[in-house]
Amino acid sequence: MSSSTEISLTTNGFTGFASLVQVLGTSTGTNEKTDALSYYFTHAADEDKVWVIAIFSGRRPKRVVNSTLLQNWCAEITGLPVWLFEECYHTVGDLGETIALLLPEPDIQGQQKSLSWYIDALIRLSKAEEPEKKQFITDTWRHLNREERFVFNKLITGGFRIGVSQKVMVNALSKTVQMDAPVIAHRISGNWDPGTTKFSELLNNEGAAADHSKPYPFYLAYALDKEPAALGDPQEWQAEWKWDGIRGQIIKRNRQLFVWSRGEELMTDKFPEYQVLENLLPDGTVLDGEILPGRGDTPLPFSVLQTRIGRKNVSKKQLQEAPVVFYAYDLLEYDGVDIRDQPLETRRKLLEQIVNDLSASGRAIPVFISPVISFKTWEALAAIRERSRELGAEGLMLKRIQSAYQVGRKIGDWWKWKMDALTIDAVMVYAQKGHGRRSNLYTDYTFAVQDGDKLVTFTKAYSGLTDKEFAQVDAFVKRNSLEKFGPVRTVKPELVFEIAFEGIAASNRHKSGVALRFPRISRWRKDKTPGEINTLADLKQLLDVYGK
Amino acid sequence: MIRFTDKGLYCPAGNFYIDPWQPVERAVITHAHSDHARAGSASYLCHHLTLPLLQLRLGNNHYQSVGWNEPVFINGVRLSLHPAGHIIGSSQVRLEHNGEVWVFSGDYKTEHDGLSGAFEPVRCHTFITESTFGLPIYTWKPQQVIYDDISNWIRNNQSHQKTSVLIAYSLGKAQRILEAVSAVTGNIYAHGAVYNVHETLQQAGIPLPDIRRVTPETPREQLKGSVVIAPPGAAESPWMKKFTPYAVGVCSGWMQVRGHARRSNVDAGFALSDHADWPGLLQAINATGAQKVFVTHGFQSALSRYLNEQGLEAAEVKTEYGNDEEITELKEENGIISEQAPETT
Ligand SMILES: [Zn+2]
Ligand SMILES: [Zn+2]
User: Fold this and answer.
1) Do the Cβ atoms of A471 and B260 come within 8 Å?
2) Using a CB-CB distance cutoff of 8 angstroms, which residues of chain B are in contact with residue A6?
3) What is the mean pLDDT of the segment spanning A197-226?
4) ipTM attached to this prediction
5) What is the pTM of this model?
6) Would you identify the CATH topology of the domain B3-136+275-321?
7) Per UniProt, what is one GO molecular function of this protein (chain B) (predicted)?
8) Average of per-residue pLDDT across B205-226
9) Mean pLDDT of B85-97
10) Which member of A162, A305, B268, B298 lies 3.0 to 4.6 Å from A293 by CB, making a disulfide possible if both were Cys?
11) Which residue does chain B place closest to A436, by CA atoms?
12) A496-501 vs A488-491, strand pairing mode
């Protein structure tokens, strides 16, 4: 039945990979994407397939040259002035694509090389001197066509934003190699090296190569889109606070501790606070929970954590100012056995036992059990939910007591029931052109609130308008520009928008003194004039109430 | 010779306007796109092939039409029209007075599409050029390559029993892509807005293949595997339901940039434009031999700066087609039905 037999794609060599990227980048349907991938996994060379899995799950060879060099080499070849290159880059929004579009037509194409050949070459190049790097990269540009160049550049710069979810890739692989999707999801997560791993090792039916670090795929909840009463008998449900942190798994296997984020990033070294667990947790334990900034069992605002996430090495000062704890809410592996099939009730009992044993050690333990909220009726729970922000939570989680721990985002057994966002009315003061499809429209705006007779900018916000509204705002910007600073236009302060956000924190990097979390445009207040917007004092008040 | 006024490009010696955006006594029209040909003026001068399109879009007015290279004298100014290659009837306007020559390009493209007349380089002292795609990232592939992509895409849809819906501006692009479509199938349907233009052009003697109008009575069976040509506004309207299962492809120069194509949420984007690309603009400007260049609608600041650095005397000019056309095109891509786009039958 598979329609994939009709796909007239080549899967050969680098051209094959480039056409795969092309198809995945333009087809909108999940089925088409899955078909294209599974066709590729059926026909392409094994070495290339391993790299495709790696690249689409966020692994790529170490970067060998920086953007400036790539930009300079391209400007040199094309003879374009730097300002014009930058203007192009700004319009396209992607360096690799800008270069691919600007380079002249390729010379006669050389011998077709494979994806893994290029990657091996790039890996070898990491130790080379700059002239050798330049030689290889500019030579390659000369042989590849526009689509292939784009893909080659993305191998160097990273970030294939082509919209292949892990789920699509796992399903395509599952279709190709006849293994269960969850098994594949588990195999391709974790810490494996695409340079040394063979396709057959990665996806054979015998036991996985002994990789003790591998996390389980996370079970993700959908946002509750109905009244909770529709979930039926409250007795069948467990409620917890929804914490605002980084979802993570703590793994202890083979006497070693691993910390994974939901983005499947190994973050063990970023959280030295957890090291104490290496000795205390029993072997064969996997905890699922939230990595949160917190002092004792009191969570701190997420922004506190942001100050240290980006850093490679955590300083002593950061450890003191932004301490991290772990709120555990599930147990996935107990005594070396995968217990995800067991009901939540059972897993929770075992989890409590493990965390209690930790506390019994007498040491200061950064792990807490995310408490269960007891409630009799949905109305009572709704009232409790109103207190979420006071406790530093975003709302509630509802989990069916009998639910197994599933893979990925599944509807039915787990729901998040978040608080409505905070909002503030503000006026647009700057506009900048967007990227990608919107590269010709002014879609990135900066907003201000009133402070006496002045306007004070406090946030940027992007999403949230319809295409039609974007076009209208864009037309307004073009007709009402006051000044132009590079790509930014100062706009007559006239359009009022409601900005929604999830959290607020004090910040001395911002003129307004506050930083918002997840700011977005929630609606265009055509009914309001700039005289009716909120004030800086209003913002400060929100900071007092929610920013602690 | 030409002054840039708030009503449009004005020739004081001849006392007429070119593509004015406000009603005037006497308007010379380069082509029938809505941002260049606006209603309300007392009299219009245009090319013979633009005339029926103006009648369709602006209704009855005082019109005068001429052929290419047929000079007309207006108050002593020698005016002639020359093919611009943009859409059917599209013309550059050449003005000569007291030995001085100015040319306004209107919208143009340098690649010959076989329908619009081949762009004619006209020597002049001062050239006023458009710059819709005035950045070097906009370097088009040869149209035959894009046509082949479109044909292959249609074939692939047919093999999946899908209808191919091609989104194209109803005047210009919609006629142009018929060449690519006809290479695969004669089973071609059109949205009412496209069909009206098509019929008008056929009646004016343009040899276009026959297409059928989609009506509520069109049997679904007949639409299976067919090609439907629709204006941008139709893409996200319920009108599309009738074609299920279908795939949507957009033909527009903006599709050159990947993110643009991807986020427009269509199945395929074809970078096919009726405007000159970067090399085309430079080549056209060069061929005029003009020392002075005014750059209008599009990336005027980038193009004029580049020309200045190349030793030409160039300046940007703000026109209302500048902004409006950009917005109009994008608006339409964004699925907003503009005033004169489709009735949804
Ligand atoms: Zn036009
Ligand atoms: Zn135009």
Assistant:
1) no
2) 156, 159-160
3) 77
4) 0.90
5) 0.69
6) Metallo-beta-lactamase; Chain A (3.60.15)
7) RNA endonuclease activity
8) 91
9) 97
10) A305
11) B259
12) unpaired
